[in-house]
Design brief:
The chain is mainly α. About 65% of the residues lie in helices and about 10% in strands.
């Protein structure tokens, strides 16, 4: 059953019911949910994650300590999650960053506090965009 506007014989429009006609179905198979702005945001996110990973690599090679090596490993896990669109890796990386942030707030090393804070914000924005 389909409701539509019909014209009566005297020309007055009225709401009519056509039992034989079906409403137009919307075909969602051709629907493109990702707009151009969203795709640009995702590309920008990937570029930022790759650049942060390479900065981690350079920093690890210049100042080799256990914390920087662990940060590099977890940064590679986050980068893998972004490139493969696997948000479980990004969640795992965010949990690591939160634990590290709490640790370095306690020790009060400003360089790592800023690093972890910025990376957590980036992960939260990325998780929001992909969900």
């Amino acid at each position: 059953m389909y409701y539509n506007q019909v014209r009566q014989p005297n020309g007055v429009p009225a709401l009519g019911i056509n039992l034989e006609m079906q409403p137009q179905s919307t075909d969602i198979s051709n629907f493109e949910p990702e707009t151009e702005v969203e795709s640009m945001d995702i590309i920008f996110n990937k570029i930022v994650y790759v650049s942060i990973f390479f900065m981690n690599c350079m920093f690890t090679f210049t100042v080799s300590n256990l914390i920087n090596i662990i940060n590099l490993l977890f940064s590679s896990i986050g980068l893998y999650g972004i490139l493969q669109k696997n948000m479980k890796c990004v969640y795992f990386h965010t949990i690591y960053l939160l634990i590290g942030l709490i640790m370095f707030i306690y020790v009060s090393i400003e360089m790592y506090i800023i690093y972890y804070s910025v990376y957590i914000i980036l992960n939260i924005i990325t998780i929001e965009q992909y969900s």
